[in-house]
UniProtKB/TrEMBL annotation:
<dbReference type="GO" id="GO:0003864">
    <property type="term" value="F:3-methyl-2-oxobutanoate hydroxymethyltransferase activity"/>
</dbReference>
<comment type="subunit">
    <text>Homodecamer; pentamer of dimers.</text>
</comment>
<feature type="binding site">
    <location>
        <position position="45"/>
    </location>
    <ligand>
        <name>Mg(2+)</name>
    </ligand>
</feature>
<comment type="pathway">
    <text>Cofactor biosynthesis; (R)-pantothenate biosynthesis; (R)-pantoate from 3-methyl-2-oxobutanoate: step 1/2.</text>
</comment>
<dbReference type="InterPro" id="IPR040442">
    <property type="entry name" value="Pyrv_kinase-like_dom_sf"/>
</dbReference>
<comment type="similarity">
    <text>Belongs to the PanB family.</text>
</comment>
<keyword id="KW-0808">Transferase</keyword>
<keyword id="KW-0479">Metal-binding</keyword>
<feature type="binding site">
    <location>
        <begin position="45"/>
        <end position="46"/>
    </location>
    <ligand>
        <name>3-methyl-2-oxobutanoate</name>
    </ligand>
</feature>
<protein>
    <recommendedName>
        <fullName>3-methyl-2-oxobutanoate hydroxymethyltransferase</fullName>
        <ecNumber>2.1.2.11</ecNumber>
    </recommendedName>
</protein>
<feature type="binding site">
    <location>
        <position position="84"/>
    </location>
    <ligand>
        <name>Mg(2+)</name>
    </ligand>
</feature>
<feature type="binding site">
    <location>
        <position position="84"/>
    </location>
    <ligand>
        <name>3-methyl-2-oxobutanoate</name>
    </ligand>
</feature>
<feature type="binding site">
    <location>
        <position position="114"/>
    </location>
    <ligand>
        <name>Mg(2+)</name>
    </ligand>
</feature>
<dbReference type="Pfam" id="PF02548">
    <property type="entry name" value="Pantoate_transf"/>
</dbReference>
<dbReference type="InterPro" id="IPR015813">
    <property type="entry name" value="Pyrv/PenolPyrv_kinase-like_dom"/>
</dbReference>
<comment type="function">
    <text>Catalyzes the reversible reaction in which hydroxymethyl group from 5,10-methylenetetrahydrofolate is transferred onto alpha-ketoisovalerate to form ketopantoate.</text>
</comment>
<feature type="binding site">
    <location>
        <position position="112"/>
    </location>
    <ligand>
        <name>3-methyl-2-oxobutanoate</name>
    </ligand>
</feature>
C-alpha cells in the first residue's frame, strides 16, 4: 500500500470517494488501524478524556501530544498522521508556529486547529511554512465551556451560514482539510460542496468526504453516555483488528454513518 498524502485525500474527494480516519494514541492500536487501511490517524486531544480521565480536552499539554505523536509515528506505515494543537496554542502567531513546529518534529504530517475565520492569518502563516492544516469547525471541544456543553452546532440558519463562511475563509487562507463535528447532515453536505478541500465529519452526516471516530467509541468503550453518531464495531466481532477493518469498510461502502447516527 502506498503512503496516504494530502493528494490521496483530495483525489478521493474529486472522484466522489470517501475515506476513514480514527484516533490513535499508542503504537499497538496505531499499527492495527494502519493495517486495517484507515487513511488518517489522529492523535487527538480527546486523549485528555479517554486516556487521562479529564472531563474535557482543555488540560492536555503540548508535551502530552508530542509523547503520543512519537508513539504513533513509530508504528504507522501508510496512514497520514494528523495531530491536534492543544488549547491556547493560538494565543498568538509565534506560539502557534512554535507549537506546530514541535508537533511536526515529533512526527505529525497534518496539524489540526480549532477556530473560526479569525484563525485565517495563523493558518496562512503555517501553510506558507510548509505545515498543512486541518481546520476543525462546528462543535469545537476546546470551546465546551462557551457552548455550555457538548451540543450540536449550526442548527440555526445564520449559525450554519457562518460555519460555511468560516470553512471558505480558512480554505482560502490555505487550510488543506476541514473537520466538522456535530452539525446537521444538511450542513455537512453544504460545507463539502462549498470548498475544494476534503471535509472530514464526525456527527456531520454521510455526505462529507471522510469520517472520523474516537477509537474507544469504535470499540464500544464508552463511559455511560453514548453520543448519537457513535457505533460499536466490535459488537458481533471477536478482535480489535476485525472491528477496525469493519469500520473502515463501512465508511468506504457508505453504510456508516446511517440515518440513526445523524443529526
Ligand atoms: O481529539 C479528537 O479526538 C478529535 C476528534 C473527535 C475529531 O478532535
Ligand atoms: Na480534538
Amino acid at each position: 500500500m502506498k503512503p496516504v498524502t494530502l493528494n490521496t485525500l483530495s483525489n478521493l474527494k474529486t472522484q466522489g470517494d470517501t475515506f476513514s480516519c480514527l484516533t490513535a494514541y499508542d503504537a499497538t492500536f496505531a499499527r492495527c488501524a494502519d493495517e486495517a487501511g484507515i487513511e488518517v490517524l489522529l492523535v487527538g486531544d480527546s486523549l485528555g478524556m479517554v486516556l487521562q480521565g479529564h472531563a474535557s480536552t482543555l488540560p492536555v499539554t503540548l508535551d502530552d501530544l508530542c509523547y503520543h505523536t512519537r508513539c504513533v509515528a513509530r508504528a504507522k506505515r501508510h496512514s497520514l498522521l494528523m495531530v491536534d494543537l492543544p488549547f491556547m496554542s493560538n494565543v498568538d502567531t509565534a506560539q502557534l508556529l512554535r507549537d506546530a513546529g514541535t508537533l511536526m518534529r515529533a512526527g505529525a504530517e497534518l496539524i489540526k486547529i480549532e477556530g473560526e475565520a479569525w484563525m485565517a492569518d495563523g493558518v496562512n502563516e503555517l501553510h506558507r511554512r510548509g505545515v498543512p492544516v486541518c481546520a476543525h469547525l462546528g462543535l469545537t471541544p476546546q470551546s465546551v465551556h462557551r457552548f455550555g456543553g457538548f451540543k450540536v452546532q449550526g442548527r440555526e440558519r445564520d449559525q450554519a451560514q457562518r460555519i460555511i463562511h468560516d470553512a471558505q475563509c480558512l480554505v482560502d487562507a490555505g487550510a488543506a482539510v476541514i473537520l466538522l463535528e456535530c452539525v446537521p447532515a444538511e450542513l455537512g453536505k453544504a460545507v463539502r460542496d462549498a470548498v475544494a478541500a476534503p471535509v472530514i465529519g464526525i456527527g456531520a452526516g454521510a455526505e462529507v468526504d471522510g469520517q472520523i471516530l474516537v477509537m474507544h467509541d469504535v470499540l464500544g468503550l464508552n463511559s455511560g453516555y453514548v453520543p448519537r453518531f457513535v457505533k460499536n464495531f466490535l459488537s458481533g466481532r471477536d478482535s480489535i483488528p476485525d472491528a477496525f477493518r469493519a469500520y473502515h469498510e463501512a465508511v468506504k461502502a457508505r453504510t456508516f454513518p446511517a440515518e440513526e447516527h445523524t443529526f
